[in-house]
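If your schedule permits, I should be very grateful for your opinion on a structural question. Please examine both parts with care and let me know of anything in them that strikes you as inconsistent. The record follows directly beneath this note:
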Amino acid sequence: MKTSIEPVLEIDLTAVKHNYNFLKSFGSGVQIACAVKDDAYGIGALDVVRTLKDNCSVFFVAYAKEGELIRSFVPNADIYILQGIGENELSQIIKNHLIPVLSTLEDVQWWTSVTDESYALMIETGLNRLGLRTNEINELTISQRKKASLVMSHLACADDTAHPLNKIQLERFQSLKHLFPNAKFSLSASEGFLLGSSYLQDMVRIGALLYGINRSDAFKTNIRPVMSIKAAVLQTAVLPKGEYVSYGATFQAPKDMHLAVISLGYGDGLFRSLGEGKGGFYWHQKRLPILGRICMDSTMCDMAEATDLKPGDFIDVLNSFYTADEMAKDVGTIGYEIISRFGKGQRFQKKIKEA
């Protein structure tokens, strides 16, 4: 009898610590801040903060409630709130010594009218998402500028080192720094490391590389995957030539085949588009191509290369040789979305490998 059929999601906190320490040494002299928004991209914010609390002194979250949640773990850290602040969150921000990242002129004017606390300022340099434009920055008073303890922007094309927008954004950012005499400066997230020291400024905000998402060969041997997933084989069967597999009958067996049914589907966060011959799972590094469409709770695979597979065995969905980045290529997305989707899965047995 099978002992368990629930898929297993393992988080390797030793890899989180390794990745952080590597990036800290790579960016010598630059403050390395950790993005733990969206529950640390699905990795688990409390686990990440607990792992890094003795090494990292700056964290970024999306909302005040996330900052309040991690504050007890890092009583002396700077915790920045990326989405800014609503009027109803003011007491929560002040009580927990959180720092809002303000992105509009109205927010800066309101914040500086209700408190003497410092703030972080997001400025727009080319991403055209959040941030003050140059004309709005010029409307800030000298006093308001002096209260900005951190001035930030965000690169649009850091993963493409040759893209001309990188240099344009750097030049725009540099041209405004003299307006903020008391501030530190931060332009880059993880992929800024690929662009050279001028892009690192005073602080780099790492998220992707911290959690093992790496699209560059530059860090291939140094950045370790953090998330791995295994799923149980529910059934194996002979699939006769000419038979169809899964909804829509999009796959027809060209010959007699051996079929494995895996206990994982789009209800667990697996992209449905991974089916139709695009993706595969692994058994002892032997690939099990996906056959037909992925179902809500299960996926069918060709077990021609793994004829010893049997019900109750656990196959690899994500691991060190089929990473979130590689799965992302197969479905046309990015590694961030892969781990965020799986990290929100409610049906996984979650296992933590402590640092």
